[in-house]
Design a protein that fits this description.
single chain, 8 strands, Rossmann fold, globular
C-alpha cells in the first residue's frame, strides 16, 4: 500500500477548502477505577462504551485468563481527527500558512513565487495545483530555519493567538471530551498512553501534556531533519528543510517499534492512515482492542468518511466491520464533543 505523509496528505484536502482538560500524568495508579464512578460520563450507554469497559476490566483483572502485565499495557492514539478535530483542514496546515504570512516581509520574492504567492493571496485552488512538491516546499520553509526551542515558542504563541474558522475558539480547545475521559480511564487502570500521529512531533510536543496529560516523550510523529550546533558554547539543535521520518500508514507500526519497542494492546484512530497501527495492535499475543472513531455528527462537529479529502475512512471501516473492531458513532455514542460544552 502506498504511504502518505502528513505533508503529502495536504495535497488532497486543500481542494476542499488553553484547553482546560484535567492536568493528569501518565504515572501508574495501583487501583482500578471504582465501578461506582462513571469514568466515561460523556459517553452514552451502549455497546461502544460497554465494550471499552469490559475489555479494560478483563485485562486488568489478575484472575482473568486475559490479564495483561502492567508493563505491557501500551495504548496508542492518533491525534488529528481522533483526539482533536481536523476539519476543514489539518490544524498544522493552518499553522504553516500563518507562518508563511508571518515570514513574508523577509521574503519579498514570495509575492511572485509559487506556492507562496497562493498562500499570501489565500488562493487555495491554485495552491492545491502544485501538488506534493509545492506543499513540501511550503512546509519546509515554514517549519525550518530555527532552533527547536524557537520553534516550540512559535507553536505556543500561535495556539494562544489563533482561532478556528468555524468555532472561533483556539484550536487546542477543539479536543474531544469523551477521549479525554478514555485516556484518564486507561491510565487509572495502569495503561501507558502514547500519541502516534502523522502530524509533526515538535508541533505537538508543546501542548499535548496540558491537553491530554500525555508527556512530550510519549509522542511519536512525523519529523524534519535536525542537526547539533555547538553555537560558541551555547548548544542548539537546528531544524533543517529536509524530511526525517514519516509517521503515517505503514510508518506508524515502524514508529511504534522504533520508539516504544512493544506492540500496543489498545489502539485508537479515525482514518485509513491509522489502519496499519490497528492491524499491528491486532497481532498482539495479548487480548487487544481496536477502536475507530467515525465522524457522524454534522451539527456538533462534522460528518465524513470514505469521500473526505481529510481523514478519509474507507478501508479502515471495512476492516473494522469484518474483524469486529469497535467503532465509535460520534453522533450517537457521545453526549458532548468538546470540553467547553460542559461549561
Amino acid at each position: 500500500m502506498k504511504k502518505y505523509s502528513f505533508f503529502i496528505i495536504l495535497t488532497t484536502f486543500l481542494v476542499s477548502t488553553s484547553c482546560q482538560s484535567p492536568d493528569t500524568t501518565d504515572s501508574s495508579i495501583s487501583s482500578t477505577v471504582s465501578t461506582d464512578f462513571d469514568a466515561l460520563s460523556s459517553w452514552n450507554e451502549g455497546p461502544t462504551k460497554q465494550a471499552i469497559i469490559d475489555y479494560v476490566e478483563d485485562v486488568s483483572n489478575p484472575e482473568s485468563a486475559n490479564f495483561i502485565p502492567i508493563e505491557d499495557r501500551i495504548a496508542t492514539f492518533d491525534n488529528d481527527g481522533n483526539l482533536w478535530s481536523e476539519q476543514p483542514a489539518y490544524f498544522q496546515l493552518f499553522f504553516a500558512m500563518d507562518r508563511v504570512k508571518a515570514l513574508a516581509s523577509d521574503h519579498p520574492e514570495w509575492k511572485t513565487t509559487q506556492p507562496f504567492q497562493s498562500v499570501l493571496e489565500n488562493d487555495m485552488k491554485t495552491l492545491s495545483s502544485f501538488g506534493e512538491h509545492g506543499l513540501l516546499e511550503l512546509v519546509m520553509a515554514s517549519h525550518s530555519g530555527m532552533s527547536t526551542e524557537e520553534f516550540e515558542q512559535i507553536v505556543t504563541d500561535w495556539l494562544a493567538n489563533s482561532k478556528h474558522p468555524r468555532f472561533d475558539r483556539p484550536f487546542n480547545e477543539l479536543i474531544y471530551q469523551p477521549m479525554l475521559e478514555l485516556l484518564d480511564y486507561l491510565r487509572a487502570n495502569e495503561f501507558k498512553t502514547f500519541i502516534v500521529s502523522g502530524g509533526g512531533i515538535e508541533f505537538m510536543r508543546p501542548w499535548v501534556y496540558k491537553a491530554y496529560g500525555i508527556p512530550s516523550d510519549q509522542v511519536i510523529g512525523s519529523s524534519i531533519a535536525t542537526e547539533f550546533d555547538y553555537n560558541n558554547g551555547n548548544p542548539i539543535i537546528k531544524r533543517l528543510p529536509k524530511i526525517d521520518f514519516i509517521d503515517d500508514k505503514e510508518g506508524k507500526p515502524i514508529g511504534i517499534h522504533k520508539f516504544i519497542g512493544k506492540k500496543p494492546v489498545f489502539a485508537s484512530g479515525n482514518s485509513d492512515g491509522d489502519l496499519q497501527m490497528l492491524q499491528w495492535t491486532d497481532s498482539n499475543k495479548y487480548k487487544s482492542f481496536q477502536l475507530y472513531l467515525h465522524h457522524t455528527d454534522a451539527d456538533r462537529e462534522w460528518a465524513y468518511d470514505k469521500d473526505s479529502s481529510v481523514g478519509r475512512l474507507d478501508k479502515g471501516l471495512e476492516e473494522a466491520s469484518s474483524k469486529g473492531w469497535t467503532v465509535i458513532d460520534m453522533k450517537n455514542d457521545w453526549k458532548v464533543i468538546y470540553p467547553f460544552e460542559l461549561k
